[in-house]
Amino acid sequence: MIETTDLIISICYVIGILIIGLSYGIHHKRKNRENAAREYFLAGKSLKWPSIGLALFATNISTVHLVSLAQSGFDSGLLNGNFEWMAAFTLILLALFFTPFYIKSGVATLPDFLERRYDRSSRDWLVVISIVSAIIIHIAFSMLAGGIVLKTLFNVDLYTSVIVISVITAIYTIVGGLKAVVITESIQTVVLITGAAIISFAAYFKMGGWQPMVDVLQSTGEMNKLSMLRPHGDPSGMPWYAVMLGYPVLGIWYWCADQTIVQRVLGAKDENHARVGPLFCGFIKILPVFIFILPGLFAYTLAQSGKLDISALQSIDETGKTIVNSKGIYTLMITQLLPTGLVGILVAALLSGLMSQVSGALNSISTMFGYDIYKRYRPNTSDVKLVRVGKIAAGVALVFSLMLLPLLNRYESIFNGLNDIIAHIAPPITCVFLLGVFWKKASAQSAKLTLWIGSALGAIVFTVNKLYVDTSLAQIPFMMMAFYLFMACFVMQVVFSYVYPVQHTEQSEKLYWKSFLEPLQSKGWSGIGNYKTLSALLLLLMAGLFWIFR
């Protein structure tokens, strides 16, 4: 349990975010209703690169990351940092190759883009997949992780705490639209990073620095915990080649083709802001390894050296062996390593992760339902009614997410469970977006069949793996499974593109790159803010970091 002072800080933070979010909603209502939908769903195309970068990071980093990355740091060291640092490469892809099409085409949703490049069937399928994935991946998993933390800290029922926080988040999201989401997410990113940095420094100083941690790892034979690129046969199931082959499949879908993430880019003021925003986020993505994962590794060495009491997480299995339920390691560190006052800031950071993830997903769901579903059947719908329909859709999505919590709570590791699901959803979507943008011959019929068959194949493999856990298929690590499913989809779409040759429309003819150099012809801003300069700097920095922690 936390002290009264910390509880007051946490409550004041939630109330403050609610007031800020609602103030933008009230301001939005006072504006001219002529462009109500554009203002609500895309922030009136007014977002600048700092807001875009911060909002992208906040939408990506949820309580799942704070809790599960610390858990992974405790269990396997820096290994899962690959998910954070590899993101920088896919954000560069977003900035260089995908963003120009999204901005120039003027689309409000990514399913809309897919229709312009392929056909209506592809759009419809992506809408369904995107809404379902937003409900499961972005909302339900985040609420589950948040509920576990709040239950540990406040000793309140998991579902009660999640419902209260989610409803508060839904109020300002549904009232304020994307502008309110981005403004609150920018604030939440700062709070989240500050809180995570505090626990990192606390663990660092409690350990006595970096070298004492290394000494403990050496004495326990666990030096591999400092390595991010593991050899073949590593017990984690994530050797270096699995990361290099499997992550791009997950990452390109998540960062370049998922509405919940890319909607911040779609609301950009212009192409330069839309390109620099993701690159800014790429630089921020360096931090999670040091402020989310490293504290978990410090917790492991602190426990080994007797400086952290983890008895509350220990239990005895049927063989008499002591096991540690590391799900609660982050909250344990908060209560044992921080003084009163700082605990409240950490709780605010955890709430930031939960609220930003939920708000971003609800806004994207309302946008897709309004533009891609409702307006299709009622094309003459006014902007005001479209906004109202979007708000109702967001509310319904929140209820569905809450209903999924008992099912998702069965995963031993929330982070691995999350990525396991993504690995089976992403391959066909990544395939049709990549080939659509880079290959002239990718046809509408091939995209439709690849999405249908690829999604069915992913669902079948996922189901078989869960029902028959002892089969050789079930033993394939999810990263490699994502790669194998992607290659199946790739071959599928190429073959179908020759069987059903492409018939470009006037729109689709402009929505693929004639060469890899074509997207780099735009000059961009001068100086250090140029998107090409920033991309090169980010590439060099990430290459250096991977070399150091190889």
From TrEMBL:
Write down the Gene3D superfamilies for this protein, in alphabetical order: Sodium/glucose cotransporter (1.20.1730.10)
Q: Which GO terms describe its molecular function?
A: D-glucose:sodium symporter activity
Q: Look up the record and report any one GO term of the cellular component aspect.
A: plasma membrane
Q: How does the entry describe its membrane topology?
A: Multi-pass membrane protein
**A Pfam family the protein falls into:** SSF
Query: What keywords appear on the UniProt entry?
Result: Membrane, Transmembrane, Transmembrane helix
Stretches that traverse the bilayer: 6-26, 47-71, 83-103, 124-150, 156-175, 187-205, 238-256, 276-300, 342-365, 386-409, 421-439, 451-469, 481-500, 531-549
Q: Does the keyword Heme apply?
A: no
Q: Which InterPro entries match?
A: Na/Glc_symporter_sf, Na/solute_symporter
> Where is this protein found?
Membrane
What NCBIfam families does the record point to? sss (TIGR00813)
Report the family membership: Belongs to the sodium:solute symporter (SSF) (TC 2.A.21) family.
Which protein is depicted? Sodium:solute symporter
Q: Which organism is it from?
A: Flavobacterium gilvum
- Please name the taxonomic classification of the source: Bacteria, Pseudomonadati, Bacteroidota, Flavobacteriia, Flavobacteriales
